[in-house]
Amino acid sequence: MKVLVAIKRVVDYNVRVQVKPDGSGVAIDGVKMSVNPFCEIAVEEAMRLKEAGKATEVVVVTIGVEKAQDQLRSALAMGADRAIHVTTDAQMQPLGVARVLQKLVDEEQPGLVLMGKQAIDDDCSQTGQMLAAILGWPQATFAGKLEIDGDKATVAREVDAGLETLNVDLPAVVTTDLRLNEPRYIKIPDIMKAKKKPLDKRPLDELGVDLGPQLTTTKVAPPAQRQPGKKVADVAELVSELKERGLV
Ligand code: AMP
Q1: Ligand 1 binding residues, C-beta < 6 A
Q2: Among 100, 123, 165, 174, which residue has the fewest nearby CB atoms (within 10 Å)?
Q3: Cα(244) to centroid of ligand 1, in Å?
Q4: What is the whole-number distance in angstroms between the Cα of residue 115 and the centre of ligand 1?
């Protein structure tokens, strides 16, 4: 079974992003970029499936700017067999990404598509669901545990009431949650090996994909400043403070 893993280049989760002065977005020039953490978990899971003999090939794909190649190389260093880079400078949105992935799924015919449950930059959490819908495939989102048995997958997902277990027929789209696994550290020899692995570049324009109706961002603003807290000496003072602020 071939596994296709979609990974996104995002601002590293340790970076404190700054909103651009004109409110058009966040500044990313000179900022550290990484593989979206949930996508890293998806790559790790694909590697574990391959090591367990359940997957035969792991193909990683990203859609984005030239530099997104670095994130594909990281996934190759984790062990993926080959990479596809759909190159574009366009600001991609979930529906457009899903349509491009649909095209690649048609070409590659994977038995499983693994994706992150959400990208930490736009927090959309939509792409996996949209891809499954347009492919007409089953979807199991927010996976905390994944087992493959023949042409079926069992996925445990955390929901408010506890753990929900789903059985889906393959091929399917599975999106990863934080508890699915802990991604491996990449060793230097693996980085060297990754440089020689195949990376296929596909200009987005040549795929002939209609990106569909797109969203327009009207404004990006930083969160409101938090008011400083106040220590109170006792319950009486707490109650009078709350009353003063009209909270009780
Ligand atoms: P989102 O719906 O934007 O929160 O993204 C959910 C998942 O879709 C990500 O974790 C990736 O697996 C995939 N994805 C989103 N954008 C891209 C992209 N530009 N290239 C490849 N995969 C993507």
Answers
A1: 6-8, 36, 38-39, 62-64, 92, 94, 97, 115-116, 118-119, 122, 124-128
A2: 123
A3: 47
A4: 7
Considering only CA atoms, give the Rg of the chain.
21
For a ligand 1 pocket test, name from 127, 178, 215 the mutation site with the most ligand atoms within 8 angstroms of its C-beta: 127
In this structure, which residue's CA is closest to atom 17 in ligand 1? 8
pLDDT tens for each residue of the chain, 248 residues long: 999 999 999 999 999 999 999 999 999 989 999 999 999 999 999 999 999 999 999 999 999 999 999 999 999 999 999 999 999 999 899 999 999 999 999 999 999 999 999 999 999 999 999 999 999 999 999 999 999 999 999 999 989 889 999 999 999 999 999 999 999 999 999 999 999 999 999 999 999 998 877 888 899 998 888 888 889 999 999 999 999 989 98
- The gap from C-alpha 171 to its chain's centroid, in whole angstroms, comes to 19
Fold of 2-219: Rossmann fold (3.40.50)
Please report, for the chain, the start and end positions of each structural domain, with discontinuous segments joined by +.
2-219
Residue nearest to atom 14 of ligand 1 (CA): 8
In terms of C-beta density within 10 A (0-12 exposed, 13-18 middle, 19 or more buried), how is residue 186 classed?
middle
